[in-house]
């Protein structure tokens, strides 16, 4: 289960499933940045470019949308146990940049159903 994995391992899993099934990210050219706080913190960027996904730790590119949240809430969101809009409204998630891109990303991640990955 993802909750037992490190944030870095979760990002590896996200990159893997997106490479295996590129259809949901076809036609997208965007850089998402996650600023993750907590015991397992870090900055990660997700580059989506014409059906390819690449995850980088650190600040390699200029993000179109930045999401800030704790490591625990990040894992909950990835597994579909925490709704992004609810997290934003309750202050568990902060967004800089395009709110529309943040909502689109949540929809994309839901298509991959990461809660079922090992």
Automatic annotation (TrEMBL):
InterPro entries: SCP2_sterol-bd_dom, SCP2_sterol-bd_dom_sf
Signal peptide: none
Domain SCP2: residue ranges: 19-109
Record-linked Pfam families: SCP2
GO CC annotations on file: cytosol
UniProt-listed PANTHER family: SCP2 STEROL-BINDING DOMAIN-CONTAINING PROTEIN 1, STEROL CARRIER PROTEIN 2 SCP-2 FAMILY PROTEIN
Name of this protein: Sterol-binding domain protein
Protein source organism: Mesobacillus selenatarsenatis (strain DSM 18680 / JCM 14380 / FERM P-15431 / SF-1)
């Amino acid at each position: 289960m993802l909750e037992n994995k490190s944030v870095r391992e979760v990002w590896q899993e996200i990159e893997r499933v997106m490479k295996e099934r590129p259809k949901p990210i076809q036609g997208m050219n965007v850089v998402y940045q996650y600023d993750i706080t907590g015991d397992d913190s870090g900055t990660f960027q997700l580059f989506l470019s014409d059906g390819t996904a690449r995850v980088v730790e650190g600040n390699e590119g200029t993000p179109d949308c930045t999401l800030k949240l704790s490591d625990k809430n990040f894992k909950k969101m990835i597994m579909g146990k925490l709704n992004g809009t609810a997290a934003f409204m309750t202050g568990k998630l902060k967004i800089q940049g395009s709110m529309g891109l943040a909502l689109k990303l949540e929809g994309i991640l839901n298509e991959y159903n990461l809660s079922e990955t090992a």
